[in-house]
Records
---
Amino acid sequence: MKHRHLGEKNKNVTPIAWLSCTDFKYTGKGWIAVIDGDLKMKDLDKDIAWAKAWISNDKHTAYVKIHNGYPGYEVTPSLEIKNVSTIPVFLDYYIVNGTTLTKEEIKENNIVFLNADGDCKPEVLIQLYDFLGEQIDPGQGKERSWRIVVL
């Protein structure tokens, strides 16, 4: 497995929108909530936290691991999907922390909050940039980034 270091300088990020406890649904692996919102960012002089990203050997799963993360730390991984087949493909869903999220659930700039223990105090949020439902023709690719923030 090849690991890639992400980011060069640390940022402090806070969500502009917040959620209520009733927004969370249990997934069997943790609690998740999806709300409409955006993020406010400011650059920091810190260079404490860092992240690695890698793709599973079967090329079906992307992983991101944050090291020395602190509240407000943000990393922006990027993923390119290339169609190496002879027929067009469509991405129908993401799976985040065991929860399947479809195009109907994810709109542009939606924020996904992850709460491991169900205490209504999420530990991580992910801002997904949607490319679900887009056609990827043979030999073509699509690239998208998303933000992961330690809360």
---
Amino acid sequence: MSISIELPADIESDARSIPDLPQLLTSFIRSQVELERWRKKRFSPQTREIVRQAVEEAASLRARGITREQLFDEMLRMDLEAPEKE
């Protein structure tokens, strides 16, 4: 298999000077393949779907400019405003 990627202009020249870049990329991809195989064995399809949905929702929030810190602050505020449970 052959893969072509577009590198950002600010690193393209430096990347070309790495003598073993193809081997490094192959090693990285191999480790990612092993990680994905492990995930598929470790987690059920339902769990993977929940994670996929969460990642999608996080991307949507980022696209709307909502930060993790804002969500955390909102959660704390809601907790402080909630009636005490006994």
